[in-house]
């Protein structure tokens, strides 16, 4: 690990100011960044810790019923405090990594990193969430732009994520045992105006919506509605854990399980 300074701002304004320094890097829970630094794959001049900013922590309900989660809120807190309002999201958070990861990792850090196998991107995209930064609001459909790529600009910080609450939802994850990441994960959310299905862990392009399943499930919210559908293996991830064809198969399987559990 290379030498670096560390800043611990107590306000969003101070964090944004600190991030304007050359080669400064935001630090959430550090579950991805710290191992990267240890391997000397990154060399920031300073880390700006966001975990001491009180206004970026906690779970609350907006006037319109949406669940609002501060960007510095850890997974364990989401699992506990969102359970009464959005059980599908809380269940997802409760099964991220292990207890150590859940008590350090943050929702803002996960979404900013946008790992192609992370769980929160599926929840955000499947819910039609809004990612709120210090500068603007970004719809989830516009936020995710590829593997490890997002709409965030240099120095932009995720301060809050706002989740509309569906009538029914569930997340099914086929776990890669060593890492606890999703080999394939599917988040299904049924709203009054239709169903959203978001898939993580499978595609070379990162999290994506399975539109054919959304159309079928909007007409009939049951696993049987998926019977005639297939998922192309094109652009699916190939590694020692599974072939593209295997991941394409798992998408349909996990979607069906999520629908059954939600219904």
UniProtKB/TrEMBL annotation:
Stored SUPFAM superfamilies: CO dehydrogenase flavoprotein C-terminal domain-like, FAD-binding/transporter-associated domain-like
Chain ranges of the FAD-binding PCMH-type domain: 1-168
GO MF annotations in UniProt: FAD binding; oxidoreductase activity
Pfam families, A to Z: FAD_binding_5
SMART domains, per database record: CO_deh_flav_C
Record keywords, A-Z: FAD, Flavoprotein, Oxidoreductase
Domain of life according to the entry: Bacteria
PANTHER family: XANTHINE DEHYDROGENASE SUBUNIT C-RELATED
Record protein name field: Carbon-monoxide dehydrogenase medium subunit
Taxonomy of the source species: Bacteria, Pseudomonadati, Pseudomonadota, Alphaproteobacteria, Rhodobacterales
């Amino acid at each position: 690990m290379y030498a670096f300074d560390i800043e611990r701002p107590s306000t969003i304004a101070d964090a944004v100011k600190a991030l304007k320094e050359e080669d400064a890097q935001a630090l959430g829970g550090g579950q991805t960044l710290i191992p990267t630094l240890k391997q000397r794959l990154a060399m920031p001049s300073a880390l700006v810790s966001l975990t001491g900013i009180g206004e970026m922590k906690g779970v609350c309900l907006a006037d319109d019923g949406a669940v609002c989660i501060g960007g510095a809120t850890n997974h364990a807190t989401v699992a506990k405090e969102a359970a009464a309002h959005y059980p599908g999201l809380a269940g997802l958070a409760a099964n991220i990594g292990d207890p150590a990861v859940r008590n350090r990792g943050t929702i803002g850090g996960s979404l900013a990193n946008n790992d192609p196998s992370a769980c929160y991107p599926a929840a955000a995209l499947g819910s039609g969430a809004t990612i709120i930064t210090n500068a603007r609001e970004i719809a989830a459909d516009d936020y995710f732009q590829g593997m490890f790529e997002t709409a965030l600009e240099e120095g932009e910080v995720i301060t809050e994520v706002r989740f509309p609450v569906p009538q029914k939802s569930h997340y099914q994850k086929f776990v890669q045992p060593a890492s606890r990441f999703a080999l394939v994960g599917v988040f299904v959310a049924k709203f009054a105006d239709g169903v959203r299905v978001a898939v993580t862990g499978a595609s070379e392009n990162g999290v994506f919506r399975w539109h054919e399943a959304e159309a079928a499930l909007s007409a009939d919210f049951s696993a049987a509605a998926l019977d005639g559908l297939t998922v192309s293996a094109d652009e699916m991830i190939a590694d020692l854990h599974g072939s593209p064809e295997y991941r394409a198969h798992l998408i349909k399987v996990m979607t069906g399980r999520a629908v059954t559990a939600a219904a």
